[in-house]
DNA sequence: TTTCTGACA
DNA sequence: TGTCAGTA
């Protein structure tokens, strides 16, 4: 088995933090008026980014756009603003550990013949074994399977 | 042009 | 929340 690449060799990751939006952009993307966004801010529901330059216009990170869209979704379902925010906070609170665990669990991609595995890191405390996850090809069955391999069976990638 | 704050409805 | 005024 051989590494296609390891996490630290990943060259084409998307760091969404580089995408920020002005209030007018959020307004046209979300349908939430700028007036409304400023009102939400006054209630502590959303927060613009701290700007390093001395410009006064608000800028929002991509994550805040997601939050705004989630609030809007609950609002459109008939929730009050207060309840919409409570629901979004609940959702974000349980999504965070899920996201954190999944992103830190990813250690790289390994292949063997035509099979690709995700390296999920050390399986044992000694670090002699690696846990790999994969899906069987073809089948409609999307179940994830796991495989434990000895670390010495894993070759580094070529580069 | 866009955004900001404050005021009034 | 929408809208308007007067700015930066």
TrEMBL record:
Transmembrane segments: none annotated. SMART domains: HTH_MERR (SM00422). It comes from the Bacteria. GO terms for molecular function: DNA binding. GO terms for biological process: regulation of DNA-templated transcription. InterPro entries: DNA-bd_dom_put_sf (IPR009061), MerR-type_HTH_dom (IPR000551). This is MerR family transcriptional regulator.
């Amino acid at each position: 088995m051989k590494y296609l690449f390891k996490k630290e060799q990943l060259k084409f990751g998307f760091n969404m933090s580089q995408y920020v939006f002005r209030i007018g952009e959020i307004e046209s993307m979300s349908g939430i008026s700028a007036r409304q966004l400023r009102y939400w801010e006054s209630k502590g529901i959303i927060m613009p980014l701290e700007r390093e330059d001395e410009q006064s216009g608000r800028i929002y990170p991509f994550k805040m756009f997601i939050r705004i869209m989630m609030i809007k979704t609950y609002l459109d379902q008939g929730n009050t603003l207060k309840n919409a925010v409570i629901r979004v906070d609940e959702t974000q609170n349980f999504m965070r550990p899920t996201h954190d665990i999944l992103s830190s669990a990813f250690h790289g991609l390994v292949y063997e013949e035509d099979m690709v595995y995700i390296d999920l890191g050390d399986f044992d405390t000694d670090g002699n074994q690696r846990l790999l996850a994969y899906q069987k090809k073809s089948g409609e069955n999307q179940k994830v399977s796991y495989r434990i391999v000895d670390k010495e069976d894993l070759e580094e990638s070529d580069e």
